[in-house]
Amino acid sequence: MPFPTNLHQNDDRSTNFRRSDREAHSYWRDVFTSEPISEELRELIREDLRKKWHCSRLENFRWRVKMNWGTVDDQLVLLNDKKGAVTPKQLLLFCNKITAFYWLQTAQSNGAPGERRLMPRIVFATIYREWSQYYDFQPNIEFGRYIANPIRITSNGPSTIRDVLKAHHSLCMQACDLMAKARQETGLVYNLLRTELRRYVIHPLYKAIILLIDRYEIDFQSDLDGLFSLEDAAQQQTVLIVRTGLEAGLSAKISFDSLRAKSLPLDRSDMDGQPVIDIVRTSLTTAVRFILDLEKREIIAHPGSVQDCAWDPSINSGSPIRAVDGSARHDPETWADALIEAAEKYGYDDDPITRTSIRRVQAAMIGENFGELTPVPFGNKWKE
């Protein structure tokens, strides 16, 4: 296949020559765009820009979830006592999640003050990978949807399963009360929440089942490529799945029968001689899939519970440089059209997005890679 004709060439090598990725990057970075371009190429660029829009939003979402799960405490819900507290600013963290993920003190590592307060990010990364893979790496990321929100238990918080369940009941009641008030009361915080509040809900499953991590078990052993597999980490790490007893609104009761053969010893002294709590320990992989299967069951039973497919404006891609206003970023079609319109007027090299896009498209036409649309890895040595 010949080299593309819409870029000036500074290379007289055979058209059968295949560059390495490093050579291809250097080559396509330095070529200049020859305009006008053909209609066929323009449509390929338009399609590439639509993909870029989705990729950018996914990258924004991944960053947001990473900040929520793996940074300082002001991004988290903290459980400082046996009741907990939900502030209006934290309300949306409870919405559109399937379950809560409680980090017991025993699964945290020491922070600077000496208290156990650090939650290993690789656990978050494995959860994200399993959740994303369940949906063929195209999950619904709109309006805060995710498998769980993290709740870090401090040294003053509960340490037994029974006390965590009591705290979960309390947090759910507080969140539901705040949701009801947010639809009625005035004030800055409530007005901010109410903007898109109709798209947020505290699901019955969130009240009915929780995940707990009570020990960190991942053993870093890299593969031959020098990378550590998050899939392996999800098999190594175990979590506790617990029914809370709050199953109102579900299509059917939750049963752990399908998990019994895969379950592991509980190995918890606080469960000895206590009234029965329905709880199992499984690998993180098994737990995530079980929770997502439950969600699928509820969606099938209550199809009206799924919100419409509107795009969440808070995670949209940035506006094109030449766009007249911010509306161009609200959907992939408008965004791509605005970029093409600006590129036709000012040149495809005027905006870095179209500059990369035309090179990415034409590189692909001859089997080379440039500016690939792939998310930034959660860790340099982690293989998703």
Strand content: 5-15%
Biggest sheet descriptor: 6 strands, mixed
List unreliable stretches of 5+ residues.
1-5, 8-14
Radius of gyration: 25 Å
Mean pLDDT: 85
Describe the protein:
- It is a single chain.
- The chain is α/β, with parallel strands linked by helices.
- Helix content is 38%, strand content 11%.
- The chain has a 6-stranded mixed beta sheet, with helices on both faces. The chain has a two-stranded antiparallel sheet with strand order 3-4.
- Strand 3 (109-110) and strand 4 (116-118) form a beta hairpin.
- The chain is globular.
- It starts with 20 loop residues before the first helix and ends with a strand.
Question: What order do the helices and strands come in, and which of them pair?
Answer:
Elements: H1 21-30, H2 39-70, E1 77-79, E2 97-103, E3 109-110, E4 116-118, H3 121-134, E5 146-153, H4 161-182, H5 188-194, H6 204-208, E6 209-213, E7 228-229, H7 230-236, E8 238-243, E9 279-283, H8 284-301, H9 332-346, H10 352-365, E10 382-383
Parallel strand pairs: 1-5, 2-5, 2-6, 7-10
Antiparallel strand pairs: 3-4, 6-8, 8-9
Name a few traits of the molecule.
single chain; 384 residues; alpha/beta; two-stranded antiparallel ribbon; 10 strands; 38% helix; disordered N terminus
In short:
This protein is of the alpha/beta class and 384 residues long. The relative contact order is 0.17.
